[in-house]
Inverse folding.
């Protein structure tokens, strides 16, 4: 039970405040009116994304500029630098995965079919390895080739020391290879994480979101 | 003689009707005629992806490429080798055929019809929808029967004898 306030600065004022009972009646009447008009009397609550949830990330989360190794030549780059200026769909994967990762790859392959002009619109796809010890630049390149990845679809692996942090950010904290999240993270052109999809979203849904970011 | 000829005609009509009814039940003559061993081998080919299976994730509007919806990508079968880092259950005779409580429900088990329902709709024998990662397949009765025979090991012995 909340104690009655004794702070004179917070003491209620006005006609209704003079009589507590009358005040309650007034408040109840006001609430009933508001409810009948379709207003919520509860204070507005900002949407907060919690673990294992999906949907809009509000407020957006700034992606840290951790170093990553890129597929192919193994060049090192900053993650935020790779993301900035592009609308990006990012999924977690590892090249030794035979179960869900091939489906994730096929989904991105289909996204590229749906977005033949993705380069012109500054849209990119990123496969983010969660097995940086095994996923060499060469292995990641081979993985991209399995799905006929065109320009605009890159694969990267973080440094081992950053992996846990990245799994928290993109994978809802699931830290086992077997149970890694299959959601897609949508990242805007400022390198802010703005949306998390449900598990294994359709290519159409991803393409639609990327067009809007 | 005329009466005997009439009887033959009636018998032929009955056989034709029976074959038509079998086909309508989803049991074409080819299924009935195929040996257990042939079905088992076909089932193995379907399981491993030598013969394409067509399926899609249930939230999607197009099929996945057959190579990514192979059963063997996720499931081990019987006493075969593990699929590394896969959480999908190993498909064994006991897992499929022995009654057991699934997700707190009453004991249930698979049969061929229930197995085919699961593949096509994602609904298991306990009437629970399985996870989103498992594709839903477009598979006819002939192939489903073959796959069922393979995953239950029915016909396996004839492979070696």
């Amino acid at each position: 039970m909340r104690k009655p306030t004794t702070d004179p600065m917070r003491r209620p004022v006005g006609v209704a405040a003079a009589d507590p009972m009358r005040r309650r009646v007034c408040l109840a009447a006001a609430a009933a009116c508001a409810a009948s008009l379709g207003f919520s009397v509860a204070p507005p609550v900002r949407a907060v994304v919690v673990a294992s949830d999906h949907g809009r990330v509000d407020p957006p989360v700034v992606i840290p500029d951790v170093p990553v190794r890129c597929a192919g030549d193994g060049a090192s780059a900053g993650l935020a630098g790779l993301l900035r200026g592009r609308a990006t769909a990012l999924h977690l994967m590892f090249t030794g995965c035979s179960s869900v990762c091939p489906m994730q790859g096929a989904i991105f392959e289909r996204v590229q079919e749906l977005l033949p002009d993705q380069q012109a619109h500054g849209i990119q796809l990123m496969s983010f390895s969660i097995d940086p010890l095994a996923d060499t630049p060469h292995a990641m390149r081979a993985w991209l080739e399995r799905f006929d990845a065109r320009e605009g679809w890159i694969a990267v692996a973080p440094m081992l020391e950053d992996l846990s942090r990245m799994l928290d950010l993109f994978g809802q904290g699931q830290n086992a290879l077997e149970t890694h999240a299959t959601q897609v993270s949508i990242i805007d052109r400022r390198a802010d994480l703005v949306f998390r999809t449900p598990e294994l979203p359709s290519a159409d849904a991803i393409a639609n979101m990327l067009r809007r970011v | 003689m005329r009466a005997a000829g009439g009887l033959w005609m009636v018998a032929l009509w009955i056989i034709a009707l029976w074959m038509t009814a079998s086909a309508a039940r989803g049991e074409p003559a080819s299924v009935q005629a195929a040996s257990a061993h042939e079905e088992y081998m076909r089932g193995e080919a379907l399981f491993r992806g030598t013969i394409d299976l067509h399926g899609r994730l249930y939230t999607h509007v197009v099929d996945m490429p057959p190579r990514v919806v192979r059963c063997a990508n996720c499931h081990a079968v019987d006493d075969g080798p593990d699929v590394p880092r896969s959480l999908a259950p190993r498909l064994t005779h006991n897992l499929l055929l022995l009654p057991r409580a699934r997700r707190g429900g009453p004991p249930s088990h698979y049969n061929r019809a229930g197995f085919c329902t699961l593949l096509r709709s994602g609904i298991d024998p306990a009437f629970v929808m399985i996870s989103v990662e498992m594709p839903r397949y477009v598979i006819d009765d002939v192939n489903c029967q073959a796959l069922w025979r393979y995953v239950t090991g029915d016909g396996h012995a004839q492979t070696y004898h």
Q: What stands out?
A: Strands of chain B lie at 54-56, 100-101, 107-108, 136-138. The longest helix of chain B spans residues 2-24. Chain B touches chain A through 21 residues (CB under 8 Å). The two ends of chain B are 50 Å apart (CA to CA).
